[in-house]
Design brief:
heterodimer, A: 501 residues, alpha/beta, Rossmann fold, 3 domains, six-stranded mixed beta sheet, globular, B: 15 helices, 70% helix
Amino acid sequence: MRLELRDITKQFPGVLANDRISISADRGKVLGLLGENGAGKTTLMNILSGLYRPDSGEILIDGETQVFRDPAEAISAGIGMVHQHFMLVPVFDVVESVALGSEPVSGLAATFDRATARARVVELSNQYGLHVDPDSKIEDLPVGVRQRVEILKALYRRSDILVLDEPSAVLTPGETEELFGIIRGLAAGGTTVIFITHKLNEVLEVADTITVLRRGRVAGTVLPHETSREELANLMVGREVELTVTRGPANPGETVLELKDVFVRNDRDEMAVRGASLEVRAGEIVAVAGVQGNGQTELVEAITGLRHIDSGHIKVGDTLLDEAKPRKVADLGVAHIPEDRMRDGLIKGMTVAENYILDSYHREPYSSTGRFDRVAIAREAAKGVKEFDIRTPSIETTVGSLSGGNQQKVIVAREFSRPVKLVVASQPTRGLDVGSIEYIHRRIIEQRDAGAAILIVSTELDEVLALGDRVAVMFSGRIVGVLPSEQATKEAVGMLMGGVH
Amino acid sequence: MTAAAAPANAVVPAASEAERRALQRARIRGIVISALGLIAFALASNTMNSEVTFKFWVVTQGKDFVQIQTTAGMFWILTGIATGGTGIWQLWRGSSTRWRRWLILWLPLWVAAVVSTLLTGKTAVLTNAFAGTFEYAFPISMGAFAALICERSGMFDIAVEGKLLVGACVGAITASMAIQWLGPDTGMIVGPIVGPLFAALAGVGIGVLMAWLAIRYKVDQIITGTVVNFGALGLTNFVYLRVLQTYTDYNTPPTIEKVDVPLLSGIPVLGPILFQGTPYMYIGWVVMLVLTYFLFRTRWGLRLRASGEYPQAAGTVGINVIRIRYRAMILAGAIAGFAGSYLSLHSAGSFQMNMSAGKGFIGIAAMIFGAWNPIGAFGAALVFGFADSTQQLLSQLGVDVPPQFLASVPYILTVVVVAGLVGRVRGPAMAGQPYEQG
């Protein structure tokens, strides 16, 4: 079916999320919707799926105007959504998850007819090559398979229009290829696919047409064979950007961080890191690649003193981090850029200045004899704001009201304000715009050139390849390979990420 | 070393620190449990001559009976074997033993052994004690069902206590009114129907109010629940002191009598325990079975559970989470209010101040203890009911144990059992979280 959105406008308090956006997608075609975080992609899709109602504008399917008052109406009009955060109940099995909301029932009590639902799930998964065990529980499935379940959900509802929101964020390169195969197959079968992403390579590979959104507006619509990565990036950001950071050759010195057979448990008491060993030397960047959930989070938390080590050892310089607390680790000269800014990096309700001194508020010059020196705090914070180009109305502004890029700069400014021997950066550019990514990368490389050892953990393969002097791959709690940057190709790293040696 | 030891050594891998610690913990556990077993044997040697008689009515109260004569020592020996066995098994198998399961076996034995020691030289009628267990368990299990429905839908319901109390008060007044207005003859028939009905409606009213505050205004459900509990206590106390004490006619409801189930009540020994109770008891079983079926086998249950586990997942496939939660709160209110009427219409025959006495809270404990599953919750309620019933039995037989101590035992047991047996159970992921679309 042909889908058209005309002049969709949606205003949220303080933000014009969608400003007269018009897009269209033909039957059996793939529309790539490209844009940075905050460009309005997700709002637009929530409008399409009936979660929000537009302030103005209309949705047309095959030329007919549609009004979706709730998700059920969008579903019955043939729209299927695969959300970025999977909408699957972890404790349900595949059949229950797929059928939920459109359950076949029998009898007065509306008994769930599992056999019928199961038969249909099996039929669909065979028909479209979406292999999945219908009886396994969602929480036991790897993310790649969960995504197949999400697609099955849409097919089960006979969706003619399938919307995929950032579908590759959680996949390995191999799984992404597989997903593209599925998308092409669906399109060939007549399904209209809308593929939302911020990754340039992916739209170029899979889309038939590409519409780029910027700050709630359509910045342009192009055809993949008539455009280039550079043009797309410019449309996305609105100015010329450097896609790859330039960095000189590394000049590694002595070992700063040493991990030896480290075992760490996760919150569910399962062994998440199982015998990881790695060395990071002064003046080099070691980038750890891996699909989310392979123990990276726990490993970083162990290094920074946030999590107890089960066995093995971690050494920073000559100091053994045994039962070390975060403050002690920081005192050793470890800067930590945490994975989840809002949870571990900043206190949303506190000001820029307060966040800036969060790790050294207890010592000179910020406090003496248990009292804050307001003047010194203001002076130092202002210096940090200036040096790191943090766009904030004042140092008294609460951090929660800044943009993601500026929030991340506050963290980087704070961490780099101390003498740094080791930088541990986890997903340092997640959710940031291209400009901020460029900036943060440059700062990290500066630290390397100044002689710090850098450990970067990222699930974005492009980032890992762009920054790593050596690329380590983490899979199921172990470091399964370390490649020097010249050998670290997308293919080689991708294989390791998928657990293939 | 003999050749046999070599492969055993080979099997043991270079144990990580964690495995070593687990093994150490398992050993300590084994030693402690074995020591408990030895204590049981030591107690056995002192109680071999403490005779106890247990009596069961065959069909009718006070007529034919069977009785078992034994000694407390016998129970201690059994307890010693079961406990010691678990301990030795633990030492033998190390950390891989699923020792928690064995608690199900030996913990009741400890209870039985302690009780029989206390009953030395007495004759205990167990038919009444067991039948009492089911009666005492009724309000607790219904409270647990009410809380369970709410939590499965993603709401918190700590106001079970308040609903029970209001249900008891409304039930007593409306049933009394039936007698006042319709005369004793019709009233005796209509009252026992009207009372529970209005009690249920009162519960529904509270449920709707709480749902409205929690969903419409996103008021914290712990707070509204606490407010309802204290509000119910204050309000019913006021009604009792200022109204019911003056107009006692409005607090003399007809009591709901015991009804024998045809045929089943004639089963020897079991009949008098299970099938000669009040209709409440039978309704409790029906609710348990129907709820289990609906929760796990129907569309309603699937959607209810989805709302509690991941409301956004339910919302995006077009399910109206808000409606599901309202309905859950209404149903839970009806169940809890109805159960409240049991308190005033069953044996007491009138409403008394604070007559729910914490049963609603125990119901919530039973829900957790039973892992948010109706059958499990019912089983847990039976444990609490048994504790109440035993306390009654001991005091009737004049056993010299401070009643305050006995009253505290079920709570201590709960802590032990929940910590040991249940371990970490997982409730609905999103219980108590307001749902926002999009």
